[in-house]
Design a protein that fits this description.
The protein is of the alpha+beta class. It is built from 2 helices and 6 strands. Strand 3 and strand 4 form a beta hairpin.
Length: about 100
């Protein structure tokens, strides 16, 4: 059985959108459209899953630092888990 998690998905030209998605690598790859890379977000305990074909020079501080579609998740090492309501409110604004 596939576990679903609550995430923010940010697509180019759009505000981050709250979605439920399967918690597995294939779903993440299909969503971002490429090779997975993970970097810590500005909020402790949260990470950004992005397309590794677009390398980052530094930890992303704002939306413009990341090319392409990306997913924001909370991490309970080693697994991605659902974002909290506070995470959603804060990160929706940071990566708008």
């Amino acid at each position: 059985m596939v576990k679903w998690i609550t995430v923010l998905i940010a697509e180019p030209g759009k505000d981050p959108e709250l979605r439920e998605m399967p918690n597995n690598l294939k779903a993440f790859e299909l969503t971002i459209g490429g090779y997975l890379e993970i970097v810590e977000s500005v909020r402790p305990g949260c990470s950004i899953i992005y397309n590794g074909n677009y390398p980052l020079a530094q930890k992303p501080q704002k939306r413009g630092d990341i090319e392409g579609t990306f997913i924001i998740v909370r991490v309970d090492p080693p697994d991605p888990v659902s974002l909290s309501q506070d995470d959603i409110e804060i990160l929706s604004e940071v990566y708008k």
